[in-house]
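dumping this here so i dont lose it
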């Protein structure tokens, strides 16, 4: 079973509290999603491999640790996942970005695919799929399946808010995937929205409601 990591860092809790507030503006919501994405990325990249390298400081020669050059791909689930990409890119600016387009059917709550484009060498990359919301888990599970169909192997999923139902569905569908969660919420409502949640992440990011 993959790791399920729920953040308890005070900065993340504070920023998630602001994100939830219905009075938070579209601009502030976007800024907060980016900031939380970066803070989460700092922890989610903890296991990147290092290699030794010899350099010269102004004082002497020394051996230092540098990234082994593990190639990274960030894969947002459109639309709302885009809100977490810039935060991750500020940590790993050389990462490539793939996109999975999914929307949730309002009646069935099942994901509908409309786009998928991955870097060609996705099979060799460490992949971070990002989406603010893990509700039923259908979108995340389908996104992981699509990335695997394109050759992706080493996959981590990152979200801002997760319902227990979504965590269970994703980890059962893809037990090899680690899941990083900024805040774990109580449950889903009758429309499969997360409670207390933050509403519709895509609409709040882009001001479409
Ligand atoms: O876990 P699930 O039940 O599948 O729900 C979560 C999905 O719903 C939202 O996307 P939405 O369908 O609203 O698309 P959008 O990002 O374009 O707004 C969210 O960003 C997830 O992708
Ligand atoms: O609470 C939810 C559930 C699905 N999608 C969202 O944006 N929010
Ligand atoms: Mg939406």
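and the seq i came up w/
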């Amino acid at each position: 079973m993959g790791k399920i990591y729920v953040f308890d860092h005070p900065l993340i809790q504070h920023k998630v509290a602001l994100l939830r507030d219905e009075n938070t503006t579209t601009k502030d919501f976007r800024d907060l999603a980016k900031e939380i994405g970066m803070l989460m990325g700092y922890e989610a990249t903890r296991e990147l491999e290092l290699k030794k390298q010899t350099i010269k400081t102004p004082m002497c020669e020394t051996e230092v640790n540098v990234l082994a050059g593990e190639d990274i791909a960030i894969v947002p689930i459109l639309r709302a996942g885009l809100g977490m990409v810039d935060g991750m890119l500020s940590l790993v600016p050389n990462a490539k970005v793939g996109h999975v387009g999914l929307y949730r059917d309002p009646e069935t709550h099942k994901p509908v695919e409309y786009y998928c484009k991955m870097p060609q060498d996705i099979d060799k990359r460490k992949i971070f799929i990002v989406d603010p919301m893990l509700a039923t888990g259908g979108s995340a599970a389908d996104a992981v399946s699509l990335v695997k169909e394109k050759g992706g192997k080493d996959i981590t999923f990152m979200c801002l808010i997760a319902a227990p139902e979504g965590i269970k569905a994703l980890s059962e569908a893809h037990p090899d995937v680690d899941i990083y969660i900024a805040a774990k919420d109580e449950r889903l409502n009758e429309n499969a929205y997360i409670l207390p949640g933050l509403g519709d992440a895509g609409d709040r990011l882009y001001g479409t409601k």
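Residues 80, 133, 135, 193-194, 197, 200-202 surround uracil (ligand 2) (CB under 6 Å).
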